[in-house]
């Protein structure tokens, strides 16, 4: 989705930036992990396939993705050294474009359990509500991923289905006026900035 290709969302713990080709090698490295493949129900891809996937994330109208960076490291350190995971929204229901399926992955083990996933998810949800017109969120999570299921329940999601074949739990949140207000309050510290401006050093203009 091209709507967010120049969008940076800066929170206290994490910063969300568009997924670009520069992020692919580190992302590809993460996805060699059998644990991450299992938790995300993913098949390992070649590096070239990963670049193709990144291009589809950028161009497809039914996918929105951000790379999650640690706010304490970027700007300052190189982005690939600040990457901790990704957060995605899929518009999976052609008949109802207000439904968004949300996914969060904190790939760096040292960054788990520190509230990064929670803040990134809240930021993506607020972005989906404000910019994409999402009013219903779904999350599909492997039954063994107890930490992720607990986190989504803390964000007011309710369990609505269990698929024993895929060993997957579906959670849902309908964004009422009250939920919308709560969501925007949870993210009122988030700053939206231009990716192009943050990437280039101060005082250096493109020629």
Automatic annotation (TrEMBL):
EC number: 2.3.1.308
The keyword Transmembrane belongs to this UniProt entry's keyword annotation: no
Entry keyword Transferase: yes
Function of the molecule: N-acetyltransferase that mediates the acetylation of the N-terminal residues of alpha- and beta-tubulin.
Keywords in alphabetical order: Acyltransferase, Transferase
Catalyzed reactions: N-terminal L-methionyl-[tubulin] + acetyl-CoA = N-terminal N(alpha)-acetyl-L-methionyl-[tubulin] + CoA + H(+)
InterPro entries linked: Acyl_CoA_acyltransferase, GNAT_dom, NAT9-like
UniProt gene name: Nat9
Molecular function via GO: tubulin N-terminal-methionine acetyltransferase activity
Name listed for the protein in its UniProt record: Alpha/beta-tubulin-N-acetyltransferase 9
Family: Belongs to the acetyltransferase family. GNAT subfamily.
Domain N-acetyltransferase: 14-158
Domain of life from the UniProt record: Eukaryota
Top-level taxonomy: Eukaryota, Metazoa, Chordata, Craniata, Vertebrata
Pfam families (UniProt xref): Acetyltransf_3
Top EC category: transferase
Record organism: Brachypodius melanocephalos (black-headed bulbul)
């Amino acid at each position: 989705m091209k709507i967010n290709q120049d969008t940076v969302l800066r929170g206290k713990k994490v910063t969300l930036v568009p997924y670009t080709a520069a992020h692919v090698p580190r992302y590809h490295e993460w996805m060699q992990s059998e644990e991450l493949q299992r938790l995300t129900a993913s098949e390992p891809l070649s590096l070239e396939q990963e670049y193709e996937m990144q291009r589809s994330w950028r161009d497809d109208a039914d996918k929105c993705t951000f790379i999650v960076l640690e706010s304490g490291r970027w700007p300052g350190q190189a982005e690939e050294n600040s990457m901790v995971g990704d957060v995605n929204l899929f518009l999976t229901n052609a008949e109802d474009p207000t439904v968004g399926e949300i996914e969060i992955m904190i790939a760096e083990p040292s960054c788990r359990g520190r509230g990064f996933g929670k803040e990134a998810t809240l930021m993506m949800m607020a972005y989906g509500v404000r910019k994409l017109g999402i009013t219903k969120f779904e999350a599909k999570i492997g039954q063994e991923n107890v930490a992720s299921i607990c986190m989504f329940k803390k964000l007011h999601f309710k369990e609505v289905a269990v698929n024993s074949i895929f060993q997957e739990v579906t959670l849902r949140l309908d964004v009422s006026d009250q939920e919308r207000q709560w969501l925007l309050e949870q993210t009122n510290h988030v700053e939206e900035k231009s990716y192009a401006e943050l990437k280039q050093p101060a005082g250096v203009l493109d020629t």
